[in-house]
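Supplementary notes for students who missed Thursday's class. We covered one full example, reproduced here. Read the sequence, then the structure, then the short commentary at the end.
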Amino acid sequence: MPNREDFTEDEVKIAYGIARDVARGNLPRSAGDQLVIEKLGAKPYTAAQFTEAYPAMLDGILYKKTLSDLAVTVYVEAITAEHGLAKRALALQAVFKNIEFWEKNESVRRGRPAFRKSQRALYQMLLAASPVNFVYPDDLVWSKTHYEGAVTQVLVNRYERDPTARATAIAHYGCKCCACGFDFEAKYGELGRGFIHVHHVVDLATIGAEYQVDPIKDLRPVCPNCHAMLHTEKPSMEISALRDLIAAKTIDFRT
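Structure (token representation):
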């Protein structure tokens, strides 16, 4: 009977399809686990790994059982193909939470810091493969400037962004607005799940040269409204300042 590392890509895809049926309500969880056991010869714990991870990846939340590197790759790419880039970011967020969860547990158990190097390397590889290409308010300028990447001619000049930086920021901070706390999924349900803008804390246009983005230090997820308000000033307003304005209720959102 195979261990979790012994499954082929085609077998993992079978497990993915079963996990998807469970998440959609087409199969009870117990029936899904049993089907994985029967079709793949998997152990009960391994079957539970497959069925638990899929819905967690869709929502960007922690799954506590560990998938093999192959299974993580298959799940992330299949979710991307079915649901798009926003869901890919959430899937990678769930993967990162799983890594941190196990590193924390292993550090406590061993009494010294533990790092899952291969899983972190896989996570970074999947981030780098994310084909994100969105245009946001702070991407747009009316004059040619030297900046983070090459100029791409659309209706205006657009900053060429590192897609892995956006995905890393979302994976770290989540999909709620850092200024007002707005949650698209809470407001719009499935339609809004995983949607958010990403704001450069330091305006790219003020830097004047190519630079290395630190996703955690330099980027913050914000809703489109707050993103626009941040850019009513040049350079852009501090997120903390906008947060204070909102808290003080100096902005009347009803008008």
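Commentary. Strands lie at 140-141, 151-153, 157-159, 197-200, 219-222. The chain has two domains: 4-128, 137-247. If anything here is unclear, bring it to office hours.
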